[in-house]
Amino acid sequence: MQSNDSPSLQHSILYGETEISFSLNFADRKTLAIHVYPDGKVGVDAPMLADIDKVYGKVKKRAAWILKQQRQFEHYPAPLSERRYVSGETHRYLGRQYRLKIIEGSDEIVKLTRGKLQVETRYPQDYLRVQRLLQAWYRSKALMVFTERYIQCVQHIERLGIVHDKGFHLRFMSKRWGSCTGKGIITLNPELIAAPKDCIDYVITHELCHLKEHNHGSAFYRLLSAVMKDWELRRKRLNEIVEVRFV
């Protein structure tokens, strides 16, 4: 779940008779990280001076895990259609679905009312304005809820010797719910507020575990299991009912 924004290059390896393609991003980091996304694509984040042959070797070493993740994602629902930001669309908040209702008014506000997610704006036909209002609303709610959950998760993971007091940053991301840099900077996607709180806890705990184990090796998953025994069920639920949609 770690992130970098450097340009990516396409590469591939052979694992038996199976070709695994992956994008390779070089960034200011100390360790290599491999990510498999819900659409089946593979991304690799590597240190700036990483030897390309060693990168290929590590990807090949993790090939069985990559294919396993891709098979799991094949059972997830097909990607949803692009948002139009019109009345009647379904949006999620903390795991529940709400119908979007756009009304014309003098205010520029978003609120939950009578089971609907209502957007009031002077320009109800301007979908970009509606989108910006929704993003701002999601961000404000995310900051409040994530702060509560972050405090709980930090307290829970301290028993494993992991300490974090830097808080987190918010940033809309196209493929990730969260990231953690080698310097311990945690970033969360505000759209994660669409998920139930137990799934939010999973993402935050996942990133906190990266403070001790920087990649997705077996040691990382042992650590994650020690602090959250049902993390696989939470991840499955998250990926089945919520999808990154804004970016």
Description:
The protein is an alpha/beta fold and 247 residues long. It is 35% helix and 24% strand. Strand 1 (8-15) and strand 2 (18-27) form a beta hairpin. The radius of gyration is 19 Å and the shape is globular. The chain has 2 domains: 8-74, no CATH class; 90-241, Zincin-like, CATH 3.30.2010.10. The strands form 3 sheets. It has a 4-stranded mixed beta sheet with strand order 1-2-4-3. A 4-stranded mixed beta sheet has the order 5-6-8-7, covered by helices on one side. The chain has a 3-stranded mixed beta sheet with strand order 9-11-10, covered by helices on one side. The model is unreliable at 1-7 (pLDDT under 50).
Condensed summary:
With 247 residues, the protein is of the alpha/beta class. It has 6 helices and 11 strands.
Number of domains: 2
User: Biggest sheet, open or closed, and with what strands and sense?
Assistant: 4 strands, mixed
Low-confidence stretches: 1-7
In terms of DSSP E residues, the strand content is 15-25%
CATH topology of the largest domain: Zincin-like
Q: How would the global form be characterised?
A: globular
**Name of the CATH architecture of the largest domain:** 2-Layer Sandwich
Distance between the termini: 17 Å
Please identify the structural class as seen in this structure.
alpha/beta
**What order do the SSEs take from the amino end to the carboxyl end, as H and E?**
EEEEHHEEEEHEEEHHH
Tell me the helix content.
Answer: 25-40%
| CATH level 1 name of the largest domain | Alpha Beta
